[in-house]
Each structure stands twice: as structure tokens, then as C-alpha cells.
Amino acid sequence: MARTERSIKRRTFLAAGVAAAATLPTASVAAETPVVIRGVDPYRVYDPAFECVRVVLKTRGERYSPAYVQGVSGSGFRMGGPCPCAPTCAMAMPQSDLVRLLGYEAEELTFADRKDLKERLGEILPRIKAEIRAGRPVIVFHAFTSAEWDVVCGFDDAKHEFLGRGGYQNMRGREYARADQGRMITCVETCPPIGALIVGAKDRRFDARKAEMAALKEAVRHARDTKRKNYPFDGLAVYDRWQEHWRADDAKPDWLRDGYISAVYSSTHQAGSDFLREIKGRHRAASAHLERAAERLQAEARTLHQILALLFPGEGKPQPELPDLRRTMRDLLARARADYGAMADEIGEALPRLGA
Fold this sequence. Notes:
Layout (H helix, E strand, L loop, with lengths): L2 H12 L20 E2 L14 H8 L7 H8 L6 E2 L4 H4 L5 H7 L2 E7 L6 H17 L4 E4 L7 E8 L4 E5 L11 E4 L14 E8 L5 H16 L9 E2 L1 H10 L9 H25 L7 H25 L13 H29 L3
Antiparallel strand pairs: 1-5, 2-9, 3-8, 4-5, 4-8, 5-6, 6-7
Helix pairs in contact: 3-9, 7-11, 8-11, 9-10, 10-11
């Protein structure tokens, strides 16, 4: 992970790195700016990868809960790292696949193999604006946050700005965030620019049972994947690596490894727990196992939140040296690991009862 991401992501996450719009004028004519789609739902889960899909589909009339999207996307059970790239890299599927899974067309506008980023940006921006004029928000990487997937639901050409939603707390209120329209190509010091995702028409039926079964199977496989030798790790191996760090005599809190990861996974795993409770009534043969899996995943999420509060109690600033901090961290991580592993075991017991 580049050193610049340490400062960029922490600064953007903690402070109002993107100025909120003071007022959001209504566009009376499509050719005028600012053009703003009002009433776009804020992020309900701090998930940098898939909550954007739910937000966009809600504008199409879909009523999937935040927990359900986290579940069927796999994000509610994912554990990667421990490094800040993991929540957007260690995914069960790309965003476009989730859009298609839920029954919609998906068009990816990428910067792949394009050396002239500004030229490609000039091709992508009109497509995004055309969607917004038609009342359809667009998913854009690094639009407002740092190397995360955001929702653009307005633009102001007079100020050359996009307006929209992101996962950080300062983007979840009534007002939209604002950022330069070219910001999506400014993440080059952190990662390659990715682009935008346009959600098209609904063209197929969503097979809920098939999607739920696939998500449960992948949750178990991912959690038990301890074979990866290269960093970042997956599943239980993340906890093993994390605990190893806190065995070192010079171990100190690090926002990207300890804070950001705890913030994301405490939120997404709580949603994963809620997903299990949401679907257990449709899978009665395995209902008891799914409930116990939900309890263990919720316990793990709470421990991760406890780690976040312990290490970064005030606006992300590290806690002053605490007595026995390294031992406390190892104990908390061991508890979280045990609950995460037990969650996978309970889902593993549920699968045969579901015909898997």
C-alpha cells in the first residue's frame, strides 16, 4: 500500500475531505446546471464496495435491505487484509456482477489500457451526465471518497463538480457531497483509475434462492481459506496475520491496518448477521444453524467495533499508550477470530440441510 494512501484515506475518512453542498438547487431544464437527482438514499452500511449498488437500485424502485445486498454480494462475510486495499479488492464478485445478479444490465466505463487518462475522462463524463439528466444515478470509483465506490447523482458544470453519496459519515446527511468531476483519475498514487458503472434496464429475473445459497457456500469457503501465502490474506488467515503483528514488541496502532479495517468489517459483518436472520425464515430446515451463525457474526462485529473504539477513541486519533495494549489486542482478535470461525462452522452445518 502506497504511503500516500495512509494520509489520503485517513484524512478523507475522518475529516470533511469533500465539502458538503450547502444547498441543492432543483434543475428545471435538463440542459441547465446544476442537475441534481433529489432524495437519493444515503449509505446505511460502511461498505466501500456494494452499498452503492443498493443505493442506485433503490432509485429504480427496488427495496432490498442494506443487509440483503451485503449478504448476496458476499461482503457481509468477507474478511481481507489486514490492509486498507482489502475491502475493495478481496471481493466475492465485481460490482457489475452483482448488478447483473439482481437482474439489471451493467455497462462498465473503464480506463483500462488507456495511457491518456484525460482523453478517456472526456469520453466518460458525458455518459455519466446523460444518465443523471435521465434521472439515473451512476456508480463511480473515487468520485468523493478515497479509492471506494461512490454514487454520483448530480453535477454542476459551472463549478466542474459532481454531487453525490459515499460511505464516509459526512456524506450520509441530507446534503450531498461535492468534488471535482475529474477526481476519478486522481487516485493514481493509490491505485489505477477504474472508472464508472452504469446500471441499465432490468432484463432478467432475480433468483433469490440460488443467490442466497451461493453466498452461504462462498462465506464458508472464504472464511476457511488459510492457504494463501501472499499478502493480503483472506478469512481466518487475516486474524492470524493480525495477531502476529500485535505480538511484536514495537506494535502500535495503525489507522489503515487497525482502524479502517475495523470500521469497515464491523459494519459489513453486522449487516451479514442481519442478512442471515432475514433469510432464515425461507430456509427453515437450517434456521437454527443460521440463527447461531448470525449470533456469532454479530459478536465478531461488536468486537471489531470495540477494537476501533479502543485504539481510536477520538476522531481517529490513536489512543495514548495503554498498559498491556498488545496483550489486550491479541485477546480481542482471538475472540473475534473464534466467533468468525464459528460463524463459518454453523453455516457449514446449515448447507447440507439446504440441499447443498
